[in-house]
Write a structure and sequence with these properties.
Layout: H1 2-15, E1 18-22, H2 27-32, E2 35-48, H3 54-73, E3 77-88, H4 90-97, H5 99-111, H6 115-119, H7 123-131, E4 132-145, H8 150-174, E5 180-187, H9 191-207, E6 212-213, H10 216-226, H11 236-246, E7 250-259, E8 262-271, E9 277-284
Parallel strand pairs: 5-6, 5-7
Antiparallel strand pairs: 1-3, 2-4, 3-4, 7-8, 8-9
Helix pairs in contact: 1-7, 5-7, 8-9
């Protein structure tokens, strides 16, 4: 019975879990927020007395998520809607078999005539019960780009749509009809604008009914395999190589620069077979 209780306590402690949320946004805040992406992180923490430490876990989760988000999206962001989950960690087993065994021996010698005697050989379980356990924590959160509101975002998108429409008009005069086109990337200050520009460019090229546009799912597959980003600079050699893999004869890369009411769309069009630049388009919006 004593051994059973010791084993049961170890199993319960090792498999115990954490589930909590932090910095939750209201529906109204969600409607007005510019959610630009999502990040996740994992770390190991010690739960003193098995339940103390929620505040420190939330604080560490927020700091780790913010660090990762800033590496990817820049400084002008915050982390909201944090979801934190935890379970028993291998550190807990190491702790129990190593340091835990030493501490439990001290506890047993100190209290052998009292509480520890009741366990009779369950010193490790007693130690774990008294001191706590390790947990592996996984946290995810939404990346919020602040300093903008939905009205500004909508206005910028309308301006970008107009710039793309003008760029398409120019391209239809420069490119042979039925060209097989792959839109590889768009460099911008934030990933949401880059994605929006790529989607809109693809939409307008398809609706022109003059070109064949490579499916985004296929491009994303190759993008992941070749380790290049949707936002960020892609050199001409890489663009041509990826275009060949996709079976395209034309590839398009681009960028959006500027700020406020003065922005510029720039598109660069390459012939996959010759690696030559066959068109460059620049539109202000």
């Amino acid at each position: 019975m004593k051994k059973f209780l010791s084993i049961l306590l170890i199993v319960v402690t090792f498999s115990s879990c954490v589930s909590m949320t932090d910095r939750k946004m209201t529906e109204q805040e969600m409607a007005n927020a510019n959610i630009t992406g999502k990040v996740s992180t994992t770390f190991t923490t010690f739960r003193f007395l098995h339940f103390i430490g929620d505040k420190s876990i939330k604080s560490k989760a927020q700091k780790e998520l913010l660090k990762k988000a800033q590496e990817k999206y820049g400084e002008n962001i915050e982390i909201r809607n944090i979801v934190i989950k935890g379970s028993g960690s291998l550190w807990n087993l190491t702790y129990s078999l190593g340091t835990g065994a030493i501490v439990s021996g001290i506890v047993y010698l100190t209290l052998k005539d009292g509480i520890a005697a009741l366990w009779g050989g369950g010193e490790m379980a007693l130690e774990m019960f008294l001191f706590g356990h390790f947990q592996k924590i996984t946290a995810t959160g939404d990346v919020i780009l602040f300093g903008t509101d939905q009205g500004v975002i909508h206005k910028n998108q309308q301006g970008l749509e107009g710039a793309i429409s003008k760029a398409i008009e120019t391209l239809t005069k420069s490119l042979p009809q039925n060209s097989n086109i792959a839109i590889l990337n768009m460099e911008a200050s934030d990933i949401s604008t880059a994605k929006y520009a790529v989607d809109e460019l693809e939409f307008q090229l398809v609706n022109s009914k003059k070109f064949i546009v490579v499916d985004r799912l296929r491009i994303d597959q190759i993008r992941n395999e070749q380790k290049f980003q949707l936002s960020g600079d892609v050199d001409d050699n890489s663009a041509v190589s990826i275009g060949k893999i996709l079976g395209a004869n034309i590839v398009i890369t681009g960028s959006i620069s500027g700020s406020g009411n003065s922005k510029r769309l720039f598109l660069r069009v390459l012939n996959v077979q010759t690696s030559q630049i066959i068109a460059m388009v620049r539109e202000d919006f």
